[in-house]
Known about the structure:
The structure is a homodimer. By secondary structure, the first copy, chain A, is an alpha+beta fold.
Amino acid sequence: xxxxxxxxxxxxxxxxxxxxxxxxxxxxxxxxxxxxxxxxxxxxxxxxxxxxxxxxxxxxxxxxxxxxxxxxxxxxxxxxxxxxxxxxxxxxxxxxxxxxxxxxxxxxxxxxxxxxxxxxxxxx
Amino acid sequence: xxxxxxxxxxxxxxxxxxxxxxxxxxxxxxxxxxxxxxxxxxxxxxxxxxxxxxxxxxxxxxxxxxxxxxxxxxxxxxxxxxxxxxxxxxxxxxxxxxxxxxxxxxxxxxxxxxxxxxxxxxxx
Lengths: 124, 124
């Protein structure tokens, strides 16, 4: 396991455990969390901790795929909330100290496929 | 550059160039392309080639981030279409021959942020 792999593994484990001390220790002071779909940005460790602490609870996440190399990682997260299952894609960059410095996260939602490609696809 | 990095770099370059010969050479015979948001799946090299060939043209993609390790890669793609810019997150797995065997791709769309977190976020 690379250092970045271990860090992102600990990052998701701390979030799932709501272990805010462990989570905070993985973040750079000047961490920036980007949500491009809503054009929102959370700047700084304290704000990102509060953003997660104040978020409505009840969700459980599992890491479906994590790929890491050097200071970069990308994770496909599966998040269960009530009866719903959402996927997220999260791109994480570490700083030179190995702390999480940038996170860009996408929360794609289900939609109906456009017509015209039924002959090439299966539905599941 | 790892082998997976070189393969996914060539994969996006071939798509952007509409170089279907080069693109097809990178795919395993039994490649499967998953679109979890629409629960669509394209199975096999010929179908995936046609899926891309028949897709409405005019888009241009750039690789914003690629992370690769072993047989796994994850890419954050920026796709310009008309005046619009979309992001995609693509998780690729290679087979033992280094060919693309599984692709799971997300196309997240913009949405309005939920209320209640304005004190923690900046908008951009």
